[in-house]
Known about the structure:
This protein is mostly beta strands. It has one helix spanning 68-71; strands spanning 2-9, 15-22, 31-32, 38-39, 45-46, 49-50, 55-58, 65-66, 74-85, 88-99, 105-106, 111-114, 119-122, 124-125, 132-138, 151-154, 160-168, 173-183, 188-189, 193-194, 208-209, 214-223, 229-236, 250-251, 254-255, 259-269, 274-283. The protein folds into 3 domains: 1-100, no CATH class; 105-183, Immunoglobulins (Immunoglobulin-like, Sandwich); 188-283, Immunoglobulin-like.
Amino acid sequence: xxxxxxxxxxxxxxxxxxxxxxxxxxxxxxxxxxxxxxxxxxxxxxxxxxxxxxxxxxxxxxxxxxxxxxxxxxxxxxxxxxxxxxxxxxxxxxxxxxxxxxxxxxxxxxxxxxxxxxxxxxxxxxxxxxxxxxxxxxxxxxxxxxxxxxxxxxxxxxxxxxxxxxxxxxxxxxxxxxxxxxxxxxxxxxxxxxxxxxxxxxxxxxxxxxxxxxxxxxxxxxxxxxxxxxxxxxxxxxxxxxxxxxxxxxxxxxxxxxxxxxxxxxxxxxxxxxxxxxxxxxxxx
Length: 285
């Protein structure tokens, strides 16, 4: 701050004094924050410059808004001016680019799994993680909600096509899809003959199923020649091992006679479907 005075003395001896205070300020330093490039699909951009409160010009609106979708392809100049006083101002300018910048997304080839198995979806993109805004996976009902994940585990119970749309910070997008083909056959193996003679070979009558595909065997029953229940096991884990849970060929602690017996099974699979199986088994003595 500076004070100036001016004194005037008239011939008659009268004196008049005036004073004024002057302020000298530093010229402002203006800078527009770099932005872009943008895609034609990019949303409205609010440009930023310092110090705030200046005047925008060029391709930007008065508030510094730049609309890539509305303005279209090309190179566009933007200015920003900040004035402290008449004749004391500074201006900065940048060029914004709007183009068709491909965002490549690749989920790889289609996959094949068995029911009950899982697979990992992995999206390869030509951008850095820091430049990723979000990823939209479909279908959502089978996936973890992870908007920044480019890899996700899935376990469909039926053949399903998955898609992902990746959006970059500049608004550019890319997408890909793949199909996971699910083998949802539901095999259950039950032998039709066994010899419970304690020789260590084929002494147990068992229901065999893949534990990856089967959640639980709800019941496994064997019936005698007159329809009487002679063996029952309930709610046990499936096994591919013939030496697991099963009928040892006895009824009430005594060996049954050679002949043909009927069996029934109720099996709950991992996809929530329950199936019933039945058949005959011959006991050899």
